[in-house]
Amino acid sequence: MADDAHDSSSRVFWCNINRGAGAGGNSLERRMHARRFAAAWTAVDHPVGTFNYPDHMRRVRGGDLIFMYANGLGVIGVGRAAESRLEVLFPDHPDRPRAFATEGENEEAWRIPVEWLAWDEANPCVVEPLRLSF
C-alpha cells in the first residue's frame, strides 16, 4: 500500500460491494476499479430509513480514504476520493455499475470518483464482516 495513503486530514469511508447478493460475482468491484469510482445502490425492496447512502456519501471530500470491502473476503482495495463530488445515476444512465439481469430491481446508484492506491482481490485483508456502505 502507498506510504502516503493516510494523513491527518483524511477521513475513512467503507464501500461494501455486497458480493454474493445477486448475480454478477465480482463484476461490480471490477467495474468500480476499472471506471475509478466507489458506488452504492439500493434495491426497490430496501427497508426505507435503514440507511441513507446519499447523505453519508456527500460527506466524502477529495483526499478521503475509501476502503473497498467484499463480503466474505475482506478489504480488496484502498483508494483516495479524487474530488468532492457525488454523482447520482438513475435507472436509464448508461454507466450504471449494475448492468446485469437484476438491473430492473434497482433504483438510483450513487458514485464517487476514486484514485485507487492498492487493489488485490487475490489477497484481501480480512476484517470483521460489514453490512453497510459509507
Tags for this entry?
2 helices, single chain, globular, mainly beta, ph1033 like fold, 32% strand, 134 residues, 10% helix
Structural features, described:
This protein has 134 residues and is mainly beta. It has one domain (3-119): ph1033 like fold. The chain is built from two helices and six strands. It has helices at residues 27-35, 53-57, and strands at residues 12-16, 37-43, 65-70, 74-81, 87-89, 106-119. Strands 1, 2, 3, 4, 5 and 6 form a six-stranded mixed β-sheet that branches.
* CATH topology grouping: ph1033 like fold
- Average pLDDT rating: 78
Instruction: Report the CATH C-level class.
Output: Alpha Beta
Poorly predicted segments: none
**Total count of domains:** 1
Number of strands: 6
Under the CATH scheme, the architecture is Roll
Largest beta-sheet details: 6 strands, mixed
Q: What's the SSE pattern?
A: EHEHEEEE
What's the short story on this structure?
By secondary structure, the protein is mostly beta strands. Helices cover 10% and strands 32% of the residues.
What is the topology?
Elements: E1 12-16, H1 27-35, E2 37-43, H2 53-57, E3 65-70, E4 74-81, E5 87-89, E6 106-119
Parallel strand pairs: 1-3
Antiparallel strand pairs: 2-6, 3-4, 4-6, 5-6
